[in-house]
Amino acid sequence: MTDVQTRTDNVLPTEEPPPGRSGTASTRRGVLLGAGALGTTAVLAACGTSSTNTNGTGFSNDPAPAGSTAAGGGTSTGGGTTGGSALASTADVPEGGGVIKGDLVITQPVAGTYKAFSKVCTHVGCDVNKVDGGVIICPCHGSKFSIETGEPTTGPATKALPETKVKVDGDNIVKA
Questions:
Q1: Pick the CATH number of 81-175 from 2.102.10.10, 3.40.190.10, 1.20.1250.20, 3.20.140.10
Q2: What is the pLDDT of residue 13?
Q3: Rounded Cα distance, 84 and 75, in Å
Q4: Domain map of the chain by residue range?
Q5: 137: helix, strand or coil
Q6: Closest by alpha carbon to 134, among 105, 158, 102, 171?
Q7: What is the pLDDT of residues 74-84, one digit of tens each?
Q8: Which residues 6+ apart lie within 8 Å of 146 measured at CB?
Q9: What pLDDT, in 10s, does the model give residues 105-157?
Q10: Residues 24, 26: Cα–Cα separation, whole Å
Q11: Which of 42, 41, 22, 18 has the alpha carbon at shortest distance from 30?
Q12: Per residue in 11-49, is it b (16+ CB within 10 Å) or e — as a string?
């Protein structure tokens, strides 16, 4: 047989919360909400950390000296037909590969054909950091892009890298 106690005289009295507080339930709720907000803030801050804006503008790892016209460490063509700045030397860009100069990835998909694309990945705005095996590689999430078209060959990126038209001027690659 089971004993069941039905007396209520041994129940502890409830305490009134201090003035300005509504009890321990809201205190726990406040702590949990605060912890959740702190965690969310940390995650969002980590996801948003980048040296560039997602629209492709921002800081450069290879800035030009103040007062120069050669962004990205390029050199002036010095009397070439365009009067512009060299983005790279043709000798610097391997056939079937490419180089990262300033804000651009300059590639040579086939001998004598040069292309230039933004170095800012279209997935979340990280800078691509390598050209290898005929693709441009983003280190953040593994997206890969064609050196010929800038189109993604491996996701998560779904949009092509924006292209900048270039041409050869002597031994230099310049904006067209």
A1: 2.102.10.10
A2: 53
A3: 9
A4: 22-51, 81-175
A5: strand
A6: 105
A7: 433 333 444 46
A8: 134, 135, 136, 152, 153
A9: 999 999 999 999 999 999 989 999 999 999 999 999 999 999 999 999 988 99
A10: 5
A11: 22
A12: eeeeeeeeeeeeeeeeeeeeeeeeeeeeeeeeeeeeeee
- If you search the block for the tokens 């709720």, which residue do you land on? 29
Q: Specify whether the CB–CB gap between 155 and 68 falls below 8 A.
A: no
List, for residues 156-168, the tens digit of each pLDDT value: 999 999 999 999 9
What whole-number distance in Å separates Cα of residue 162 and Cα of residue 86?
19
Q: In the chain, helix, strand, coil percent, each to 5?
A: 15, 30, 55
* C-alpha distances out from residue 51 to 19, 48, 141, 164, Å: 49, 10, 16, 21
Rounded percentage of the chain residues whose pLDDT exceeds 90: 47
Q: pLDDT (tens digit, 9 = 90+) per residue, 17-56?
A: 556 555 555 577 767 667 766 666 655 555 554 444 444 4
Q: How far apart are CA 144 and CA 137, in angstroms?
A: 5
Model's pTM, two decimal places?
0.54
- What's the mean per-residue pLDDT of the chain? 74
Residue for token pair 């990262």: 100
